[in-house]
Amino acid sequence: MISVKEAKDLISQHITALNPVSIDLAKASGHILAADIYAKYDIPAFSQSSMDGYAIKFADHKQELTLIGEMAAGTATTITIQNGETSRIFTGAPLPEGADTVVMQEKITRRDGKITLQNPNLKLGLNVRDKGSEIMAGALAMEKGNLLNPAAIGFLAGIGINEVNVYPMPKISIIVTGKELQQPGKTLEFGQVYESNSYSLSAALKHEGIDQIAIYEADDDLEILKKVLQTAIESSDVVLLTGGVSVGDYDFVIEAASQCGIKQIFHKVKQKPGKPLFFGTKDQKLIFGLPGNPSSVLSCYYNYVLPSIKSLSHKSNSVIEVQAALTHPYSKAAGLTHFLKGKYENGLVTPLSAQESYRLSSFAQANCLICLGETQEHLKKSDILTVMILPD
Ligand SMILES: Nc1nc2c(c(=O)[nH]1)N[C@H]1C(S)=C(S)[C@@H](COP(=O)(O)OP(=O)(O)OC[C@H]3O[C@@H](n4cnc5c(N)ncnc54)[C@H](O)[C@@H]3O)O[C@H]1N2
Ligand code: MOO
C-alpha cells in the first residue's frame, strides 16, 4: 500500500494536459485560454460620447452655440460642426466631425435652437471615449493562460472575438457497479440500496463546468463490466468507476481494467476512507476505481480526481489547504491518513459526527476535509491541522 502523497505524485506524473481546441466564445466560460489573443480592431471603433448631451468644439465653450443636428447611438451617417455650432448627441453615439468635447444636457440652457453652457469644470475631451482607448488594433488583448471568467468573455466579445483557442474540459464517464443499486424514486426491494454515487459525482463535475458526462451502470459481472469499461474508455478522457475495487468475490474492477488493457499505476492507498482506491491509465486516459462507499467516493474525488481533471484543462487545484486549530480532542489509530468531514470557521475546525464511509449526512454538512497524518493518533484541542476547504 502506498501513502496519500505517493498516490498523488503518481497521478500527477501520469497527466498530460488535453490538446487545445477552438470553440465558440459563448461556450468558453470557465476555460483557460490556450493562445494569446490580439485585437483586430480599434475599440471603441470611433470617438464616442459617454453622456447624453451636446457635442461641441471646446474652443467655443464660452459662446452661445447654434444647434445644427443630432447624433444618435447606432447612426450610420455623420455630420460636421463648424465654429459656433453644436450637435445633440446621445451616449454611445459617434462624435460629429469637428467636435472634441461633450457637455451633459443637465449643464446647458437651450432657447430657440441656441445653447449656452453652464459648466465651469468643462475640459477639452470631457465625456468623450477616444477611438482605440479600450484597445488598439494589433495590441495584445489577452494572454494565454488566462481564465475566461464572465468579464473576460464579455471583454473579448466587446472587441469582436467570437471564437477562442482553449484547453478543453475533459469528457468524463461514470460507471456505477453493483447489483444492489436502485434508482432514487423507485421502491427499494430487500437488499437494494439507492444509487447515489453518480449523483454526487455528476453534481461535483457540473460544478467545475464539465458537461460531457456519460453515466453507465454495470452489474457485478466481469464480461458486462469489461464491455461498459471499453465503451467508456473509447468515448472519454477520464473514467470514474465506483464500487467493485475491493477484495470481494463480486469485485471485478481490477480484473476488468487489466483485461481492457488499462495499466495499473496503483491499487490501495494508506487512507480512510477510500483505502482500495485504484488508478490506471490507457494511452492518455485516466481511470479511477473509486471505492463504492458514497463518502469514500467523494473523499477520493476531492483528493485525487478533482486536481487531475483541473490539470487536464490546465487549471490549478481549487481545493485550498489551510491550517486550523482543532476545537475538540480526537483520536485515531496510527497507520492510515484520515480525511474527516469537518466544519471550518475562522481558523477553527470541528470534526462532524457520522464519519463512517457509508454515510453522507455529515459530508452534506461539511465545508472541509480535515487531514490527519498516517502516524497521528491522539490529537488535543488546539492542535494545528491541515484542512482542505471544499468547493461550494
Ligand atoms: N475484506 C475486506 N473487505 C473490505 C475491505 C477490505 O480491505 N477487506 N475494504 C472495505 C473498504 S475500506 C471499502 S471502501 C469497500 C470498498 O469496496 P468496493 O469498492 O468494492 O465497493 P462495493 O463493495 O461495491 O460497495 C461498497 C458499499 O458502497 C455501496 N455502493 C456502491 N456503489 C454505490 C452507489 N453507486 N451508490 C450508493 N452506494 C453504493 C455498496 O452498496 C456497499 O455498501 O470495501 C470494504 N470491504
Ligand atoms: O475506505 Mo472504506 O472507504 O473506509 O470504507
Report on the structure:
Pathway: Cofactor biosynthesis; molybdopterin biosynthesis. Pfam families: MoCF_biosynth, MoeA_C, MoeA_N. The chain has about 400 residues and is α+β, with helices and mostly antiparallel strands. It has 4 domains: about 5-20 and about 170-310, 3-Layer(aba) Sandwich (Molybdenum Cofactor Biosythetic Enzyme, Chain A), CATH 3.40.980; about 20-40 and about 145-165, no CATH class; about 50-130, Molybdopterin biosynthesis moeA protein, domain 3 (Beta Complex); about 320-390, Beta Barrel (Beta-clip). Helix content is about 20%, strand content about 30%. The protein has helices at about 5-15, 150-160, 195-205, 220-235, 255-260, 295-310, and strands at about 20-25, 30-35, 35-40, 50, 55, 65-70, 85-90, 100-105, 110, 115, 130, 140, 165, 170-175, 180, 195, 215-220, 240, 265, 270, 280, 285-290, 320-325, 330, 335-345, 350, 370, 380, 385-390. It has a 6-stranded mixed sheet, with no helix packed on it. A 6-stranded mixed sheet has the order 17-14-18-22-21-19, with helices on both faces. A hairpin with a 2-residue loop joins β25 (about 335-345) and β26. α1 (about 5-15) packs parallel to α6, α3 (about 195-205) packs parallel to α6 (about 295-310) and α4 crosses α5. The protein is elongated and about 95 Å long. The mean pLDDT is about 95. The chain binds ligand LQZAQKY5 and molybdate ion. Molybdate ion binds near residues 272, 291 and 293.
